[in-house]
Structures are given as C-alpha cells and as structure tokens.
Write a sequence for this structure.
C-alpha cells in the first residue's frame, strides 16, 4: 500500500520536473510528458527502487532549515580553507579520524556523509555501518566535526524523511 | 572579439592536452586526458554555436567513450608498449601532412565569412524552407531528420551494425543476480544517490528526446543519456541486477525495433503515395506530417542508440572480473 | 529590481570566480591527493554555487533560472558523492595520506 | 563582464589540466577530470549568457550527469585492480 503511495508521489514529482524543464505546453508535449513520466516510474518499479528513500524530501520546513544551517557551515569553512590555501606558509595539519553516526536509516547516514564531504575541510573517506572515517584538512576542522553538532542535526532531520 | 579570445585559449588547452596524451605511457592517464579533451572541445563547440554537436560530444565523448575505453583497458593492459623503432619517420610523415593541411587552409575562407561557399549553396535553402515546410524551430533537427533523412538512416544502420558486431565478437552471457557482492553492499552513498538520480536521468533523457525539435537534442543524445542512466545503476548495484530489468533479449529486440521504426516510416510514406521518407504525406497537413515523421524517426534513433550502447557495455563488462572464456 | 539586482549578480559572479581560482591554486599547491580533495570542495561549493547564483539573478524568474536551479541541485548531490567515491577508492588502494601528528 | 568570469574559469581549467598531467596517482587524475567537468558546466552556462543563448543550459545539465557517471565508472572499473593503479609512482602523494 505504501509502495503505491510512493509510486504516486514519484509520478507527481517527475511530472513536475518535466513541466519545469519543458516550457512547451502544447497538448502533444503534455501527453509525451505524461507518457515519459509513466515509463520512468514503470522502470523505477521494475528496478525496485521505489521506497521511502526516493521521496523528494527537500521542501519540508525542518529539512529546509537544515539546508540553511549547512549552507552557513559551508560558507564559514570555505573562507577558512581559502585563507589556508592562500597563505604562503600553507598552514594545514591533515588528520584522519573516525566519527560515529547516530542515524538509523541509510538515507540519514548518506545525508550525514555527504554533508561532511560538502563542507570543505572534511571528506568522508569510508563508511562502515555507523563508523565514518573522515579526512580533515586541519585539526580545527576535525575538532569541529567531533563536537557532533552536525550529527545531531541530521539525526533530528532524519525523522522527517 | 571576446569569443575569439576564448576560442584561442580553448584551442591552446586542447593542444596542450594533445601533447600530453602523446607523451603519456599509462593508458589510464591517457583515458582521463581524452575525457578532458572531449570536455574542452565540447566547450569549443558551444562557443562556435554548434549546440547539438556540443551536446553529442558531451554525452558521447566525455561519457560513453570514456567508459568504454576504460572497459577496454581493463580487458587488456594498463601500459602502452614502448615503441620498437625510432619515431623519426612517423614524425616526418605527421609534420609533412600537417604542413600540407595548414597550407591548404590558407585558401579557405575565413572563419565566419558570410561569402564562404558553404554558406551560399544549400544552407540558405535549409534556413528558408525549414520554418514554412517543416515548422521546427531547430534547423539542425530538420536537416538531420528530414532533408538528410537517408543520411541519418545510414548512420543508424552503422550504429546497429556496431551493436551486432560487438554481439558477434564478444558474445553475451547473462550474469546471475549479484546483489550479495560484498563490495557492492558497501557503497552506501553511491547506492542511495543512484536511487535518487536514476529516475531523473531517464526522465531527462526522454526530455532531450522529445524536445529535439525546439532546442539541442534528439534521438542520438537521448539514447546515450538513457543508456547512461542504466550504466549508473549497473555501477551501483552490479551488472546482474540491471540485466534482470533489461536482459539481452529485450536489448536485441530494441536494437532492431529502432531501425525498423525508421524504415517503417519510410515505407509508410511510400504506401501513402510519396517517396521513401517523404514525411509530409503522413498527415493531412504537410507540416504536421513532417512533425510526426521527424518525431517517429528520432524515436527509432533513440531506441537503437540506447540498446546498442547497453549491448556494448554489457559485452565488455561481463568479460571482466570473470574467468577467461573456455577457448583460452 | 534593476540596478541593485544587477550589481548583486556581478558580486556573486566575481566572488564565485575568486573561489574557483582559489580551488585551482589549491589543487596545484596542496601536498597530496587527500588534501587536494578539499580544494576541489571549495570550487565545487562556493565557486560553482556563487557563479550559478549570479547567473540566476541575471535570468530572473524564468525557465533559465529553473534550469540553473536544477544544475545546482544535481551538483550538490553528485559532487560529494563523486568526492567520497574517489576518497574511498584511494583509501582502499592504500594510498598513503600525509598526516600531521603534531597536536594543534 | 562575463568575459572575466570565463577567463577565470579557463585559468582554473588549465590548473586542473596541469594536475592531470602531473598526476602522480590515478586518483589525482580522476580528481582533475572531475574538477574540469564541473568547470566545463560553469563555462558552458556563462558562455550561454555571454552569447545570449541561455538554452545552452541543457548542455550544462547533461554534463553534470555525464561527468558524474564517468567518474564513478572510472573508480568502479578499477576497483579490483586498485593496488597497481596507486602503486609504483613517485611523488609527494606517496611520501
């Protein structure tokens, strides 16, 4: 039952993307768009990837709030990494360490891992269940991540998915 | 002026890449560099206003051919063999040919010269006739699918032959489901992101397919993007899982069906009393007929291209990580 | 609308260009593969983001902006995925990272 | 003004190219290709605006998807013979 709902949501989402891309709203194009959407949904069902992880969750308020927080983090660390790259002494202190991810679902963990990678200064190198190996450009960036604020925020967003 | 500057810089970068490709012995590095070469030349096509070519170069040059070259290198060796003889003679031949070619360009019209022969012969007719008779905003599509319909049919046949050739040479073997593969189970990020993107890539391919009339795009590019979607799925979930959705059988049918759709449109127009591939006969209104014909043959092209690329990919990859075939 | 948006878009575009340059310098300057990943991160996030934002401001509310948003959306998801896959592959290939053991 | 941005992107592409030449490991080269891919997306978008034909954005969209898939392909195709690909080179990355 819930699979049907997910398939329906995916159909709506894909058709919306088609309408946004297309820009030609003649009957023929709309029919082709609907046919394309249905074909893609059919293929997606065949590969059995219709589940809750495929949901377009970007627009829920708490997720949106997380994006803004992440954007701010990215800006801050960008400025930091930029300063280090440009200073003549190249003041970096690379470090490899592990963090524990508190998320329950795969999508949650992937969100956390990709958020870590998106922020310059830290890159997720390896994921073993809930243990992430992270490479940090500086000890400071590592310490920042180890404080675990991002982990907590992703955890609280995860429930919305 | 500005475009000239960018052109020249891009040409310079292309030359640097070319020299580096010649110098390198590692075939892997060469593959990476050819991918960059494709990206750069696609940017060059954009500056030259050749949008459709740029799209094709992006999809085929930077995407599919890199993947297929890698698959080839994976089946052979990573290192180019050291040449057995001094490269003096080949160098001479190349320099002489290059000099002859450059000498030849001295007589060519300047870039963008409106009086160049190429702009005086058929091009003006295409440009004038397209809006009235075909009614398609993208002239490239009307030239490709209508004015030069025979030509394109030939190209599709070439692609079909390539697919048939790969099938004949490499044969095919269907992989059992390999979702238990521990290596694949590990790549969580790739799997989740693939889940998100697989439907989007396919939808985008269909968008490119059906909007070829209005902007850059059409069957060739769409077929490649469609196949790329499945290749991404194969990379994340293993070849066996993709073959479960699109088995060889389906691909072979698709490969033939595409060409048959194309030829079928031609025959249909003959049955209706026109010439082979004379689309305007297909509907009461000639413009609608042209539209319909172009759409159908583009669809045929897209189906064949997607099927052939997947056949080639399956053929190459199913040979890897596997025991050598019985005959060795 | 008008002049203010125009100026803002140029600030974005030029700022993005600066970050792209920083990324390029970093890719050449940093000592090993793993540290270079961070430089690419800079140009992928701030560089690309600001350039696209600048173009979006130029495009206004139109089809163009929709496509730019889609490009941005794709980049946000594919960028880190590719970077992570790269780092993972290098780690599994036992490519040794430069590590600084000094305490901060 | 677009010209300034395009030139900066070209300079960055040149830097990426240099990294692809220098290596020293396969991974550095893949990184360089990936970076050049992103920059190509940007330059296509900027050039589209410069020449006032923003429909070029379709091409940029294709690039994002394609360059992602080919990066992944490189890594996956070589996953099983990684050790050779990373070893046997000398450079700052291996010290």
């Amino acid at each position: 039952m819930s699979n049907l709902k997910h398939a329906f949501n995916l159909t709506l989402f894909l058709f919306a993307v088609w309408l946004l891309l297309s820009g030609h709203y003649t009957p023929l194009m709309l029919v082709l768009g609907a046919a394309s959407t249905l074909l893609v949904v059919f293929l997606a069902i065949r590969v059995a990837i219709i589940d809750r992880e495929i949901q377009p969750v970007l627009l829920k308020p708490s997720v949106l709030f997380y994006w803004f927080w992440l954007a701010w983090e990215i800006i801050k660390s960008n400025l930091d990494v930029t300063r280090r790259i440009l200073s003549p002494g190249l003041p970096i202190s690379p470090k490899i360490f592990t963090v524990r991810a508190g998320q329950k679902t795969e999508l949650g963990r992937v969100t956390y891992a990709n958020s870590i990678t998106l922020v310059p200064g830290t890159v997720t190198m390896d994921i073993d269940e809930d243990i992430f190996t992270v490479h940090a450009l500086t000890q400071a960036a590592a310490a920042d991540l180890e404080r675990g604020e991002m982990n907590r925020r992703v955890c609280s967003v995860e429930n919305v998915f | 002026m500005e475009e000239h500057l960018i052109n020249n810089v891009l040409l310079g970068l292309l030359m640097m890449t070319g020299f580096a490709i010649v110098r390198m012995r590692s075939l892997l590095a060469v593959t990476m560099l050819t991918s960059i070469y494709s990206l750069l030349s696609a940017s060059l096509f954009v500056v030259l206003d050749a949008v459709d070519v740029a799209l094709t170069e992006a999809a085929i040059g930077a995407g599919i051919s890199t993947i297929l070259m890698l698959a080839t290198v994976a089946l052979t060796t990573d290192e180019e063999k050291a040449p057995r003889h001094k490269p003096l003679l080949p160098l001479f031949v190349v320099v002489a040919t290059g000099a002859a070619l450059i000498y030849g360009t001295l007589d060519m019209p300047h870039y963008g010269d409106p009086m160049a022969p190429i702009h005086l012969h058929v091009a003006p007719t295409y440009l004038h006739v397209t809006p009235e008779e075909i009614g398609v905003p993208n002239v490239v599509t009307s030239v490709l699918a209508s004015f030069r319909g025979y030509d394109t049919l030939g190209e599709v046949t070439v692609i079909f032959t390539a697919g048939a050739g790969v099938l004949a040479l490499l044969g095919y073997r269907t992989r059992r489901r390999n979702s238990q593969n521990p290596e694949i189970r590990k790549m969580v990020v790739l799997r989740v992101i693939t889940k998100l993107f697989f439907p989007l890539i396919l939808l985008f391919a269909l968008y490119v397919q059906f909007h070829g009339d209005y902007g850059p795009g059409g069957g060739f590019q769409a077929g490649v993007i469609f196949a790329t979607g499945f290749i991404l799925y194969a990379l994340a979930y293993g070849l066996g899982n993709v073959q479960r959705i699109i088995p060889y059988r389906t691909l072979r049918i698709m490969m033939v069906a595409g060409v048959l759709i194309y030829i079928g449109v031609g025959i249909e127009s003959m049955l209706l009393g026109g010439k082979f591939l004379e689309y305007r006969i297909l509907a009461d209104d000639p413009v609608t007929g042209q539209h319909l014909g172009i759409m159908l043959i583009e669809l045929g092209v897209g189906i064949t291209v997607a099927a052939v690329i997947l056949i080639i990919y399956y053929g190459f990859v199913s040979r890897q990580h596997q025991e050598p075939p019985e005959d060795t | 609308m008008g002049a203010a948006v125009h100026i803002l878009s140029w600030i974005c575009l030029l700022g993005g260009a600066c970050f792209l340059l920083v990324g390029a310098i970093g890719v050449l300057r940093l000592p090993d593969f793993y540290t270079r990943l961070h430089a690419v991160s800079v140009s992928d996030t701030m560089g690309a983001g600001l350039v696209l934002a600048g173009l979006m401001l130029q495009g206004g509310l139109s089809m163009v902006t929709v496509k730019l948003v889609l490009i941005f959306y794709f980049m946000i998801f594919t960028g880190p995925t590719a970077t992570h896959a790269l780092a993972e592959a290098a780690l599994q290939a036992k490519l040794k990272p430069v590590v600084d053991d000094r305490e901060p | 003004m677009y010209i300034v941005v395009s030139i900066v992107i070209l300079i960055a592409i040149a830097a990426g190219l240099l990294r692809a030449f220098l290596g020293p490991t396969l991974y550095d080269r893949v990184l360089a290709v990936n970076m050049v891919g992103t920059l190509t997306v940007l330059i296509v978008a900027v050039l589209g605006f410069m020449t006032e034909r923003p429909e070029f954005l379709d091409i940029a969209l294709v690039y994002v998807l394609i360059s992602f898939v080919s990066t992944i392909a490189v890594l996956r195709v070589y996953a099983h013979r990684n050790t050779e690909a990373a070893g046997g080179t000398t450079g700052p990355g291996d010290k």
